[in-house]
Amino acid sequence: MPEPLSPKPPRLSEVHTTELVLPNDTNPLGNMLGGRVLYLIDIAGSMAAIRHAERVCVTASIERVDFLRPVRVGQALILHARPTWAGRTSVAVDVDVFSEDLATGSRSHTCSASLTFVALGPDGRPAPVPPVVPETDDERRRYEAAERRAQERRAAKGEA
User: Fold this and answer.
1) The CATH number of 10-156 is which of 3.10.129.10, 3.20.20.70, 3.90.550.10, 3.40.1440.10?
2) Taking 50 as the threshold, does the pLDDT of residue 1 lie above it?
3) pLDDT at residue 160 greater than cutoff 60
4) Among 16, 20, 22, 10, which residue's Cα sits nearest to residue 43?
5) Which of 83, 85, 69 lies closest to 37 in space, CA to CA?
6) Domain segments of the chain as ranges
């Protein structure tokens, strides 16, 4: 029987990344395309999941995305992704997105998303991941929310 994987706190797997919003990323109004934001969320989220699982992870679901404010061409898009909960083979990740006016340093929270990734072994089948161990009140709140979403998904699939 394989040894249990050691629990890991979210801080060990966090991802912080920044992108400059260019004209090719925007609609005719100069606002960043939602699909481009989703792409970057998926990339940042997958990096956090891979860091946590220490193996390849694939996107299983995007449970929630809230677009709060538009992001304008010329602004920086800052993504902060971190694991919030882990099941046997899945890792829940929250991604918060901020826009920054590079000239003034002014930042706005522009988007939040919750995703689930599944870890894969060398054979391409789901593989075990370490548990997430929350350390702060915010991490505990995110852990409980992600655990509820996982239970709701299982109930909807008849696996509860």
Assistant:
1) 3.10.129.10
2) no
3) no
4) 16
5) 69
6) 10-156
